[in-house]
């Protein structure tokens, strides 16, 4: 399977992602969130505007995302999609 096909498969078959943000003091923050893709160019999630990661995004919209199958057993060859994005 080509890398692009593999990435699409991972996005299509998973609904949780890890959202990475940075707080005002420069500390990284990661949060697992449920997501819904809109094709392969955008992903959507719903979070309270008061959540830690939402407040981080309000100040610094640059984020990182990891989508992977968390059900793969340890040593089972887990694969992931890593993204850099701007939240809006």
Automatic annotation (TrEMBL):
InterPro entries cross-referenced by the UniProt entry: Pyridox_Oxase_N, Split_barrel_FMN-bd
Name listed for the protein in its UniProt record: Pyridoxamine 5'-phosphate oxidase family protein
Domain of life of the organism encoding this protein: Bacteria
Pyridoxamine 5'-phosphate oxidase N-terminal domain residues: 4-81
Pfam families hit by this protein: PNPOx_N
Species of the source: Nonomuraea insulae
Gene3D superfamilies hit by this protein: Electron Transport, Fmn-binding Protein, Chain A
């Amino acid at each position: 399977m080509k890398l692009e096909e593999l990435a699409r498969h991972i996005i299509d078959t998973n609904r949780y992602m890890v959202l990475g943000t940075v707080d005002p003091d420069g500390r990284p923050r990661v949060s697992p969130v449920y997501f819904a893709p809109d094709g392969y160019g955008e992903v959507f999630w719903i979070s309270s505007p008061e959540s830690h990661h939402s407040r981080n995004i309000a100040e610094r919209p640059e984020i990182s995302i990891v989508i992977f199958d968390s059900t793969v057993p340890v040593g089972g060859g887990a694969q992931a999609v890593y993204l850099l994005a701007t939240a809006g």
